[in-house]
User: What shape does this take?
Amino acid sequence: MRGDHIYVRRRGYTHHGVEVEDGEVIHFTGTLGSKRGAAIRRTPMREFTGPKGKLRYRRYGHQMPADLAVERAESKLGQSGYHLFANNCEHFATWCVHDRNTSAQVNGAVATGAVVSTTAVGAAAGIGIVSGAGAAAGLSGPGIMSGLAAAGSAVGAGAVGGLVVLGVAPAVAAVGVMNVALRDDPTFSEGDRVARRAGRVTSAAGAMGGSAAGIGAVTAAGVTGLSGAGITSGLAAIGATVGGGMAAGSAIVIAGPAVAAAAVGYGTYRAVRHIRGDATSRWPSASLIGGADGGSVTEDLSVDPIESIEFRDVAADSGQVIQVHEAVQEVPGVSDPNPADTQPGD
Assistant: This one.
């Protein structure tokens, strides 16, 4: 619809724009779909979606009136200055429709980098503590076990407790990152807000589950049990999966809760948003009926829940709407004004 924030999925990313008229979109684009020489341009919708793209739109709890969103988009026509992290196509479309110069893709990449870096730093710090805290210094078998025991003694536990204690810091950091990445905003759609809240809650649960899973893996991977021999062999077996020994196994178990916090939190967010179905709606992609000989393109512009569907015949050469066919689906309380019109393409 006019003034909507629309986007299409491409390999590894999403491309965004603002629909301005039937069959036209304003977006940040370069030559032949690349970002070389990128500028804000008005193009036919088929150029925006590509031959197989599925057009989608982003919902907001509050957005600019359609006329104002289009006015904003048109005011930027011809401007360049594309920057992947600071001024990309999503920044532009979000600003036009939502009055915020943000990019969910960039925010997600930053959050991912933050989780990876805090997890790596936390695991490295944990191994450093293990190396120096015990009676036997270094990363030999006895050194690791004595270091883990020393760390665990802080909570009145042994070597197993040490693995849990050393995993707390990176896990807390990862949960914090997820809480920032999935923070609430009253201007988001209700579905997105519910999904974000679920992601924040389950991120903490994921950290706890990751810690328990790590201890379970140690128990099962080596000599069964949590005796000294069991922990030593379990850590060695886990480390062997990446070509290392006990030190590598310890790093993996220490990092596990942080990784689980991020994976579970983000996975829950995506799953809940998909289940609710009102964070993002989809329009099936345009399918080519004719060709260069003057055929037409038919676009199905339906949005769930469907009360009516418009099938628009669009000229392949100009992108202009030639004819509109409407199919009405019976909904409780809504009568079918003309059953004969329910066959698309008449």
